Amino acid sequence: MAIRTPRAPTAAQARVSAVTCGLCHTRLMSEADHFFPRSLAFDSTRLHELFSTDELLPLWIAEPYVPLAAPIRAAIEERANVGWYGYETRPDSVKAAFWKWMADRHGWSGDGLTTIVSPSVGTSIGVLINELTGPGDGVIIQPPVFTDFKPLISSSARTVTRNPLVLTVDGYRMDLDGLAETASNSAVRLMILCNPHNPVGRLWSKPELRAVARICAENDVAVISDEIHADLTHPPHSFTPFAEAAKGTGVTWAATHGPIKTFGLAGICDTLLITDSTDIGDRFKTMSSRLHLTRNNVFATAAFETAYEEGGAWLDTLLDLTTANIERLHEGLPGDIEVMPIQATYLAWLDFRQLGLEVPELAQWLAARGLALSPGHWFGREGAGFARMSIAVETTTIDEAIRRLNHNHPD
Ligand SMILES: Cc1ncc(COP(=O)(O)O)c(C=O)c1O
Question: In CA terms, which of 57, 291, 317, 354 is 20 to 30 Å from 375?
Fold first, then answer.
């Protein structure tokens, strides 16, 4: 039995332990049980269903497991202290805060675009699938990809149309020839792009996005660009909005954004749907009123605006932490578990294929070592042999995951 101890912290890791103090002073939970027990990641019934045990270090849900930004918590507490929780108007300053953030961090201006509040990314995608396609129509996804896309398409009686990513020695790329062929089928009406791409961590470049836009425009295929992980980019990489790459191509597009992933606010916050298409904007607004998706939550409003106005320093700290955690994984994991290159997201995509395990065995192998990771086949068959690990955690947690992955490792 070889148990490898992670090496002494590198300079980047030491820098992070210095900055984590900024997080620690708002620590909600002790080191030992630093997750809220009702969090989905810890749900005992769910863990039993998925991994046959709940005695696991749960790193399978895509959200940060560190104390969240102090200003957001303060804003929620301040709102709670008002003691009045009735109907409230959503001020314009909410969208203004988002667009100022986008301009400052990503150089993207919302000029000429329609911005609509939507309860969740899933809601936006579900509504647009129904609005932009008919029963039986094809909707392109690029597996391995975020698990919700497929059920959103099939539950609307549309056809999941796969254009898998290609794995090369340099990492993942899109199969643009495959896309051109797939999109040329007249039954295919929509593509759901994931930019940055969960789970493989790719940030699509402007030329790649432009190629997608051109192919889809030529074939009259609309694009939903799910950009919910946009803020989680690892320098020197930067995020290109599909909107910017698509300029002048004539493609019909909408993009999803919001603070839920960046700031760990999925349990409270709204998201945004952005488009340059008056038609999409009008259709979405009509469906929003028909389904009454417009109701707001007073805490969401407070959290949303504060996140974009005051959350920058916290996010920088989180990104330092994830960079250091990736370094730690590179150093501490056994040689036959590979950490795939990551450009964005706080999700490490680990390659276990050298272990030679069949699809169901990898999840069991991980669970036997006390780890709940998302096995790669959940994201499509191309993900078999891989697993996704949330790395938005304290470095001590990554060290524990590394220790477990070295436990009883067949050297
Ligand atoms: C790419 C992507 N889109 C959407 C979501 C979920 O968004 P929502 O909960 O708002 O539907 C996730 C969650 O992990 C995600 O990774």
Answer: 317
Angle between helices 121-132 and 278-290 (to 10 degrees): 110
Looking only at Cα atoms, what is the longest distance across the chain?
A: 62
CATH level 2 (architecture), domain 85-310? 3-Layer(aba) Sandwich (3.40)
Distance 228 CA to ligand 1 centre (A): 7
| Cα 367 to ligand 1 centroid, rounded to whole Å | 25
> pLDDT tens digits for 338-382?
999 999 999 999 999 999 998 889 999 999 999 999 999 999 999
The vertex-12 CA angle with 10 and 13, nearest 5°, equals 65
Who contacts 240 (Cβ-Cβ below 8 Å, separation ≥6)? Answer: 195, 203, 204, 205, 206, 209
174-207 pLDDT, tens per residue? 999 999 999 999 999 999 999 999 999 999 999 9
Pick the CATH number of 11-68+312-406 from 3.90.1150.10, 3.40.50.620, 3.30.420.240, 1.10.10.10: 3.90.1150.10
Q: Global pTM? A: 0.90
For ligand 1, whether the C-beta of 137 sits within 6 Å is no
Residue 94 in contact with ligand 1 by CB distance below 6 A: no
Going from N- to C-terminal start, the domains of the chain cover: 11-68+312-406, 85-310
